[in-house]
Amino acid sequence: MVIGTMQVDDFEFFGVPKENVAAVSRRSGIAGAGGKRLIPNRREVATMPADELTASLIAWMETPHTEVIPSRGQIALVREVLAARDDVAQLGPLMAMCSHYIEGA
Asked: Mapped to the 3 state alphabet, what secondary structure does 43-75 carry?
């Protein structure tokens, strides 16, 4: 899949190094075999049910782990993926949440 001019595989965790994701997951016990990670990847953002994705994004935006705190630019990339979803019309609250984060509201 291509988003804009970028290949999805080139930026799987929206610019957060995989090593940082793995370190936080190990340290916090968030992930295990088949377990959830703190940061959803692009495929998950593109396909996860809205309620589950909202909870996942809120957890990422509120993380106390400095290695993975999202920048406004990273959340803008999340919003681009959301905008490409077939169910974008039902994602108004989630899109608004991302916009508020980006704008610092």
From this structure: HHHHHCCHHHHHHHHHHHHCCCCHHHCCCHHHH
Task: From 36, 41, 61, 58, select the one nearest 1 (Cα to Cα).
Answer: 41
Distance, in Å, from the CA atom of 65 to the CA atom of 81, rounded to the nearest integer, reads 24
pLDDT digits (tens, 9 = 90+) for 51-100: 999 999 998 998 888 989 999 999 999 999 999 999 999 999 999 999 99
Round to the nearest angstrom and report the end-to-end CA distance of the chain.
Answer: 31
User: Taking the C-alpha atoms of 94, 43, 37 and 64 in order, what is their torsion angle to the nearest 10 degrees?
Assistant: -40
pTM summary value: 0.81
29: which DSSP letter?
A: T
